[in-house]
Amino acid sequence: YAELEPEQFAYSLLTRSQRISHENLRLRDPAWLEGFERWIAEHAGAPAPAGQRPALPMLTPYRARGVTLKNRILVSPMAMYSCT
C-alpha cells in the first residue's frame, strides 16, 4: 500500500474487507465515489466529457506491456472446460 496514490489507497482501504462494495459506496458517499471514478477514468486515459458521469472502472481501458485493451472485462475460454 505504500506505493498507492491517495485515491487508490482510500478506495482499497474502504473496500478490502468486501463489506463495503463499489455500489454500496455510491449509496454512502456518491460525491466521493464520482470523484474516484473520474480519477480512475483520467488515469486510464478515458476522461469523462464535462457534465457527464465517467465510465465505470471496469469499462475503462487497460494497458499492460504495450497492449491496450478496450475494457477490464475478461472471459475464460470455454474450451478449457471440455472433456475429451
From TrEMBL:
It comes from the Bacteria. This is Bifunctional salicylyl-CoA 5-hydroxylase/oxidoreductase. The lineage of its organism: Bacteria, Pseudomonadati, Pseudomonadota, Betaproteobacteria, Burkholderiales.
